[in-house]
Design brief:
Largest sheet: 3 strands, antiparallel
Radius of gyration: 22 Å
Strand order of the largest sheet: 5-8-9
Function: Invertase that cleaves sucrose into glucose and fructose.
Distance between the termini: 58 Å
Enzyme class: hydrolase
Structural class: mainly alpha
Helix content: 40-55%
Protein name: Alkaline/neutral invertase
EC number: 3.2.1.26
Number of helices: 21
Organism: Lupinus luteus
Length: about 550
């Protein structure tokens, strides 16, 4: 066991920021669209933010609040206490290191859970791509990038394998959902075994794995300043293979990605088939990260960048126009006419107002909003999904005004979305007849449990990052304090059950690695907000569709 359990402050090196401010409208050869916008957090450097948070010599400090909203004051003594290592930090690092997986003597990832009580391993002894992301960020923030580099290279190697489910061959760009290392003590050999969906529940390929891989590659590059990995021919090829799957032309009339149930963190049947917000937000972020890292030294590279730019332009408009919901937009949908025909239609997806669930009218505050779960012909899934909305903020898919509105919603509906353990993966829970139809009577996704309204501690790092980016660290601090009151005592569970998240999940594994890593990342980001640079993208200041915060679908 490595004896180094403390935290080391390591600055994030912004080495590829020039590409992130790329003028996409120039690539599209179209007039630049602009909107009047007030200054946002994105226009401040992360180093400035870190310095302002660390000013404990003053009686109080004030955070930046976009839109002219008043700041908040926190006593300096409170700031000092919040940055002192919590007793459970050492335990978290020790547990995280116990989860390390080695291949030929080199660490290549972390297993999903180290449950000391359960005898049924299932697939919790595997390294999941999505699960490893918070672990990777924790190691990067602690100045230990080698494991992240090893992971990126090993999963890239696995991408090159032939992938089959029964007699069907999967696309070349598909990344594995997970892999495990088989140790042969007799022959003294290690063997990698990957799962591309053929062993998963429902036999669904992981759409999100490739996106997380690209996002993590950028995080590694930003943290270390090492451009050589992202610019290597293997990584360039790997990114292009992933994007080829997503940018292929077909029968689609929308720029969003059509997905099956169970293709992301919500890996069981939960009615998220179609165009789920989680996949669309990750897709958007992966496109922007790839745009910053892809080389244009040949015709193929230039063509790929041009296709990304066109897709981003369309995807930005589509998501901000049709997925966004606030009080005014809800009122507009409530008053929609149906059966409209032609390009002048206001109700473009022919959504029936009577299909709006009763709960959303009470849930929607006067000030606040969010990206809804799904939009497709005659269907809107009004459920809140935490991961998609947090990624929308971090990737700048959400405008600065929309980002603030999402944070307003979290504050206004704290009991519903946070409760006693952050954070609800989805809200509200589906139950009774709807649960039977949507989940197929799934005994794991009963109401207020698991993916069906369960509370997942791993989401703590995402909401903390979103809070810091929007200048609202007090929300993150409050959420972290809630987690610290229970997580260690309860054995780092995978998820919690109940409307308020009061109970350890009925099938939750203990010492769940991403619960541990999510807490560490949240703590380190709050201590040193400059770490946010590796997982956050600034708004593209040159490509701004004319979207107002409460715009109707006729924009």
């Amino acid at each position: 066991m490595d004896g180094h359990l403390g935290l080391r402050k390591v600055g994030s090196i912004c080495s590829i920021s020039e590409m992130e401010d790329l003028d996409l409208s120039r690539l599209l050869d179209k007039p630049k669209l602009t909107i009047e916008r007030k200054s946002s957090f994105d226009e401040r450097s992360f180093s400035e933010l870190s310095a302002s948070f660390a000013r404990v010599g003053l009686d109080s400090y004030e955070t930046y609040s976009p839109g002219g909203r008043s700041g908040f004051n926190t006593p300096a003594s409170s700031m000092r206490n919040s940055f002192e290592p919590h007793p459970m930090v050492a335990d978290a690092w020790e547990s995280l290191r116990k989860s390390l997986v080695y291949f030929r003597g080199q660490p290549v990832g972390t297993i999903a859970a180290v449950d000391h009580q359960s005898e049924e391993v299932l697939n919790y002894d595997q390294v999941f791509v999505r699960d490893f992301v918070p672990s990777a960020l924790a190691f990067l923030m602690n100045g230990e990038p080698e494991i992240v580099k090893n992971f990126l290279l090993k999963t890239l190697h696995l991408q090159g394998w032939e992938k089959r489910v029964d007699r069907f061959k999967l696309g070349a760009g598909v990344m594995p959902a997970s892999f495990k290392v088989l140790h042969d003590p007799v022959r003294k050999t290690d063997t990698l075994v990957a799962d591309f969906g053929e062993s998963a529940i429902g036999r669904v390929a992981p759409v999100d794995s490739g996106f997380w891989w690209i996002i993590l590659l950028r995080a590694y590059t930003k943290s270390t300043g090492d451009l050589s990995l992202a610019e290597s021919s293997d990584c360039q090829k790997g990114m292009k293979l992933i994007l080829t799957l997503c940018l292929a032309e077909g029968f689609d009339t929308f720029p969003t990605l059509l997905c099956a149930d169970g293709c992301s963190m919500i890996d069981r049947r939960m009615g998220v088939y179609g165009y789920p917000i989680e996949i669309q937000a990750l897709f958007f972020m992966a496109l922007r990260c790839a745009l910053a890292m892809l080389k244009q030294d040949d015709a193929e590279g230039k063509e790929c960048v041009e296709r990304i730019a066109k897709r981003l332009h369309a995807l930005t408009y589509h998501m901000r126009s049709y997925f966004w919901l606030d009080f005014q937009q809800l009122n507009d949908i409530y008053r929609y006419k149906t059966e409209e025909y032609s390009h002048t239609a206001v109700n473009k997806f022919n959504v029936i107002p009577d299909s709006i669930p009763d709960w959303v009218f009470d849930f929607m505050p006067t000030r606040g909003g969010y990206f809804i779960g799904n939009v497709s012909p005659a269907r809107m899934d009004f459920r809140w999904f935490a991961l998609g909305n947090c990624i929308a903020i971090l990737s700048s898919l959400a405008t600065p005004e929309q980002s603030m509105a999402i944070m307003d919603l979290i504050e206004a509906r704290w009991d519903e979305l946070v409760g006693e353990m952050p954070l609800k993966i989805s809200y509200p829970a589906i139950e009774s007849h709807e649960w039977r139809i949507v989940t197929g009577c799934d005994p794991k996704n009963t109401r207020w449990s698991y993916h069906n309204g369960g509370s997942w501690p791993v989401l703590l790092w995402l909401v903390t990052a979103a809070c810091i980016k929007t200048g609202r660290p007090q929300i993150a601090r409050r959420a972290i304090e809630l987690a610290e009151s229970r997580l260690l005592k309860d054995g780092w569970p995978e998820y919690y059950d109940g409307k308020l998240g009061r109970y350890v999940g009925k099938q939750a594994r203990k010492y769940q690695t991403w619960s541990i890593a999510g807490y560490l990342v949240a703590k380190m980001m709050l201590e040193d907000p400059s770490h946010l640079g590796m997982i956050s993208l600034e708004e593209d200041r040159q490509m701004k569709p004319v979207i107002k915060r409460s715009s109707s679908w006729t924009c």
